[in-house]
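The pair is listed for reference:
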Amino acid sequence: MPWRRQPVHGAELQAHWNALGQSLGRDTPAWRAEGRRLILGWAHWPRAYHDTTHLWACLRHLQAVQDQQPGALQDPHATALALWFHDAIYWPWSKHNEERSADGAMRFLRSQNLPEPMVLRVHQHILDTRHNPGALAGDAQWVVDIDLAILGQSDAVYRQFERNVRREYFFVRWPRYAAGRSAVLQGFLERPRIYGTEWFHERHEAQAHINLSNALAALRAGTLYA
């Protein structure tokens, strides 16, 4: 098993990161090097879902929001940075990925002398991707909905997502995995709504409920979209 795969969408991601640095007045060698480091980290074993494909999908959802909902984001730069860093550290067996990713983002952004209010917003947005129940406000809700967009994608895309999540949790025996994964999916289904923004709710809520219900049925039947 390779320790690190060739990043998918690596060139597009580096271009996006460089452009983000330019818009912030931080297009420096240190900024570009951080982009390369982030991209390689997102491609690191044992990622199968939380990888560069997921990062690229998040950034494309962000672009769609900006194109179709002009002015919806209060701080588009902080939102983009939060998406870049939200799974920068990801080990399936750890319960502290979001905290460590948020702290790493804070250290780097402070080293770039970005405004402290922006740094703190990015930090909090990343912590919000722990997806605890409860309403969020403003850009935080956009970040969370973008991260959860996969739940409301087509049946085929969602099935591959579930298979990839299982690949990441290869070290968990099936009975324990099925019980834990079922609890996660049931938790989303029991929420008053999965997506907090109207934009995502209208486009993906119904399909997300179908996908989650089908996945629960498969888990309870002892299968996972083989």
The chain is about 65% helix and 0% strand. The chain has a mean pLDDT of 94. Residues 10-146 form one domain.
